[in-house]
Amino acid sequence: MEMDTIAAISTPMGEGAIAIVRISGDEAVNIADLIYQGKKSLKEVETHTINYGYIVDPETNDKIEEVMVSVLLAPKTFTKENIIEINCHGGIISVNRILQLIISHGARLAEPGEFTKRAFLNGRIDLSQAEGVIDLIRAKTDRAMNVAMSQLEGKLSKRIQKSRQDLLETVAHVEVNIDYPEYDAEEMTLALLKEKAHDVKADIENLLQTAQQGKILRDGLSTVIIGRPNVGKSSLLNNLVHDNKAIVTEIAGTTRDVIEEYVNVRGVPLRLLDTAGIRETDDVVEKIGVERSRKVVGDAELVLLVLNYNEELTESDEELFHISKGKERIIIINKTDLERKINMERVKQLANEAPIVSTSLIKDEGVDELEEAIKVLFFQGDIETTDLTYVSNTRHITLLQEALRSVSEALEAIDAGLPIDMIQIDITKTWELLGEVIGESVHESLIDQLFSQFCLGK
Ligand code: GDP
Ligand code: ZN
């Protein structure tokens, strides 16, 4: 495959951080050598070495930066091409100058995800592994990172490949049967087909069972806090954010900047949407009212409904129970340090099955119980013990669901005594669908779309 040489800054930029400029392609070493001065030419050093030197503009002879340059020759590299990595001290200006120099000496600026795309196109990783890289970049918790890592390492791929291999073997058997009908093995072939189809079905079901948790780990659980003014919503948000590692991101493309805060609650990444304007003045919260809460609740996967222990339930409280019905929710009774005025019997009635947690946020009490309730609600406490082959990606889930349907149809066809070549159609289809998960029969455009989700330089 003919591919040009690409370059990009492959670390997030920030003050003082170490930045890496990465080059990949046939000309990587030659281009880097043109702008490098060290003890030896980069063309003469051994592969997989780190070399100390300077980046110098060959036109002006200006020393731009003191650097460490890794030389990694094909094929034992991430892209299976020659790779140069230039480590510099950061500083946006000098990193950019180095990148500019590389580009003016023959490399092209890489598109987002292009390094990983090359790894895929050069057969270094399969598609589900490449998607693992995307997830790794986006992972918000250690566990999500582990899941992405395991996908990157090919655990999901291996399971899928095993199922495909099983199906292929049965198809081979069927072929023999069709070609040599006199070789009377139909009984045996059917039995084998049934057994293998069963195994494959069970494995797909197992994988799909991890999907709900997998998706939460990957995407976070969109969570809203609702409650009347002054019950303690802001206090709760602050408490969760301060207790846990929070990553604040802004949702692009919205007119009003909606702030998202990711907090890692015992391995559950909560995506706290401050659409209710909790961070703003309580004035605004007052104006938001029940109508707005209804809208906010609509998009959420988890609702934290806060009530005041020190006040009687109001009509608004009842209304908030009503609009969050049918959602996963946790009822929080706050201000337990004050005198009880709330009717707990009525709260229990309204809460139905939802867990009720008492807190005194001002005294930092009850937050542990709340966090435990969140974890139990989503992971039933068993997440630690299961292995990390989670299916977390919507594309995979959809394909696996289709594969499950077609393997089930094959099993039904066997039981109904349909001709063996009919059964084979379903088996072949299952095999193809599983192949799509690992990218063995996907369209070019799908691939382009997938890789464009990467950050630049990955
Ligand atoms: P929000 O309007 O729902 O966002 O409520 P805030 O979090 O802004 O809290 C309203 C007021 O209640 C503030 O003065 C808080 O300090 C106070 N508050 C919050 N939690 C507690 C609590 O557990 N006990 C008591 N006594 N006061 C609290
Ligand atoms: Zn507030």
TrEMBL record:
GO terms for cellular component: cytosol. Its EC number is 3.6.-.-. Mg(2+) binds at S234, T255. Binds 1 potassium ion per subunit. InterPro entries: G_TrmE, GTP-bd, GTP-bd_TrmE_N, GTPase_MnmE, MnmE_dom2, MnmE_helical, P-loop_NTPase, Small_GTP-bd. PROSITE patterns: G_TRME (PS51709). One of its GO terms (biological process) is tRNA methylation. SUPFAM superfamilies: P-loop containing nucleoside triphosphate hydrolases, TrmE connector domain. (6S)-5-formyl-5,6,7,8-tetrahydrofolate binds at R22, E85, R124, K458. GTP binds at residues 230-235, 249-255, 274-277. It is an enzyme of class 3 (hydrolase). The keyword Transmembrane does not apply. Keywords: Cytoplasm, GTP-binding, Hydrolase, Magnesium, Metal-binding, Nucleotide-binding, Potassium, tRNA processing. Belongs to the TRAFAC class TrmE-Era-EngA-EngB-Septin-like GTPase superfamily. TrmE GTPase family. This is tRNA modification GTPase MnmE. It comes from Evansella cellulosilytica (strain ATCC 21833 / DSM 2522 / FERM P-1141 / JCM 9156 / N-4). The gene is mnmE.
